[in-house]
Amino acid sequence: MLDVFLTILNRDLKLAYRRWSEFANPLLFFVIVTSLFPLALSPGQALLQTIGTGVLWVGALLSSLLALEGLFRGDFDDGSMEQILLSPAPFGIVVIAKIAAHWVVSGIPLIVLVPVVALSFQLPTEALATLAAALLLATPTLSVLSAIGAALTVSLKSGGSIIGLLVLPLCSPMLIFGTRATDLAANGEPVAAPLYLLAALAVFAVSLGPLAVAAALRVGLE
Amino acid sequence: MKLPRWFHRFGSPPWVYGLAGALGPWIGGIAIVLIAAGTFGGLVLAPPDYLQGDSFRIIYIHVPSAYVSMMAYVILAVAAAIGFIWRLKLAHAAAVSIAPIGASFTFLALATGAIWGKPTWGTFWQWTDPRIMFELLLLFLYLGYMALRAAFEDRDKADRVSAILGVVGVVNVPIIHYSVIWWNSLHQGPTISRLDGPTITTDMLVPLLVMILGFTFFFFWLLLSRLQGEIVEREQATRWLRELVEESPG
Q1: A79 class by beta-carbon count within 10 Å (0-12 exposed, 13-18 middle, 19+ buried)
Q2: Rounded distance between C-alpha atoms, residue A142 and residue B190, angstroms
Q3: B242 within domain boundaries
Q4: What pLDDT score was predicted for residue B142?
Q5: Are A171 and A142 in contact (CB under 8 A)?
Q6: How many Cβ pairs within 8 Å bridge chains A and B?
Q7: Domain count across chain B
Q8: CB burial string A89-108: b at 16+ within 10 A, e below
Q9: Using an 8 Å Cβ cutoff, are A159 and A153 in contact?
């Protein structure tokens, strides 16, 4: 089982590495979206500092939404998904491996990038560690939810516009707890509670989500 | 486990169509009577609120709509799960029929809440209130479900894919609910379901409970009639439906 997991993970990471621009685009998108807010608002430092956390989290959410299109699309179009499903490898493990690979190429760069951009919004340096920790706990859940959205729409010619409608309402708890943790840290208050909740959601999503993804992919391949 | 003899009939479209047709008028009648009684009780018999005056009376539409909007989503998900697991087409038909009704009640809850909010809180819309936020997210869940269905041309596939979304959604509903409670609430605290008994007087409470019951019957009435329509659409090519149409006068 671990063999299957590692093989798929390795394959997907290699594919991502060869087409790195596809995965750089969401990050670029994140930087652009966050820099649009200061342009759209009256340039006051205090205002930017107040809304900074929210802008960062919404930007991260949108950029992870942008990254999910390609999650199953390539494998579905060239038929390799069908072959994987027909192979004796347990499909749930395959799905977890694909989600993990997606998280490595889309989640981890966000965890690094967001605190850097946060500096430009004058977020206190003490809050940066909490922000990174909250992202570390929230991005796996986002990856699982993205995978559900991608799997549900995989057999549609143009699923892109629908995915947002499906996934974003489900993402709202991560947004709430993530911004809450960051804000508490910025005010120097204890941050354990929202971080625990994010961790609980991550465990919940990673353990049950792949089942839904596998079921949706099976229907899509019928 | 041996299934009871009548159970298989729920897989038969003509039987369910007939059952829905037979039950519909009764449930509809009960709904009309209950809603009429609740309206009379709420608008005439209940005393005006000492703080909010008469404006509180919109509670008799607001709370039942909110209640039905959440109940409908759970029933939708249960029907979708039954349809997905046992491949019961009629369960899918029920789930499909529920979605627009549930979305309408969610919208009604939001709209009446906004109308009530103006005289009471001084604002139509309050972004920081968790229950408004929850109802709004619930509306998005309904709309996402309907949009996903509409995107598929093959009905069978649409059934199965949207069923997965329904189940994922219903697992998330409590999480979303409790996460939005993290905000400071403008909303009045729970008035009916409290351990030490309701904080609302009996004259106000009884019409509210009658209205909730009436709205529930109203929901099932709408559901049965939409289900009949859905069955007709799905069974267009079948003989029993053609015979039914030919038999009926006019």
Answers
A1: exposed
A2: 32
A3: no
A4: 93
A5: yes
A6: 69
A7: 1
A8: bebebbbbbbbbbbbbbbbe
A9: yes
Tens digit of each residue's pLDDT (9 = 90 or more) over B62-83: 889 999 999 999 999 999 999 8
pLDDT at position A136 over 80: yes
One-letter amino acid at A71 equals: L
Contact A77, A158 (CB under 8 A): no
Average pLDDT rounded to a whole number, residues B231-235: 86
Report how far residue A174's alpha carbon sits from residue A115's, in angstroms, rounded to the nearest whole number. Answer: 17
Long-range own/partner contacts, residues B91-96 (CB < 8 A, 24 or more apart)? B92/B159, B92/B160, B92/B163, B93/B227, B93/B230, B93/B231, B93/B234, B94/B223, B94/B227, B94/B230, B95/B159, B95/B162, B95/B163, B95/B166, B96/B149, B96/B159, B96/B162, B96/B230
- Which band of pLDDT confidence, cut at 50, 70 and 90, is reported for residue B193? low
Interchain CB distance below 8 Å, A180 and B182: yes
Q: Which residues pair with B49 in a beta bridge?
A: B53
| Percent of all residues in chain B with a pLDDT value above 70, rounded to a whole number | 87
Which tokens belong to A65? 């939404």
- On whether residue B4 sits in a domain, the answer given is no
Alpha-carbon span B149 to B135, nearest angstrom: 21
Interfacial B residues in 47-86 facing A (CB < 8 Å): 84
* Residue at B227 is within a domain: yes
Residue B92 exposure: Cα atoms within 13 Å on the Cβ side? 20
**Average pLDDT across chain A, whole number:** 85
The tokens of A198 are what?
Answer: 């994010």
Highest mean pLDDT pick, A115-124, A154-163, A194-203: A194-203
Query: Residue B160, SS3?
Result: helix
pLDDT tens-digit map of B110-144: 998 888 887 777 777 776 677 788 888 899 999 99
Of B141, B182, B183, the CB nearest to A169: B141
> Could you report the predicted ipTM of this complex, rounded to two decimals?
0.86
Closest CA of chain B from A219, distance in Å: 7
Q: Which of A12-26, A81-95, A99-113, B178-192 has the lowest mean pLDDT?
A: B178-192
Question: Does B76 map to a domain?
Answer: yes
The residue range of the domain holding B59 is: 18-231
Q: Does residue B109 have a pLDDT over 70?
A: yes
Q: Locate B240 and state its tokens.
A: 């029993």
Contact status of B140 with chain A (Cβ, < 8 Å): yes
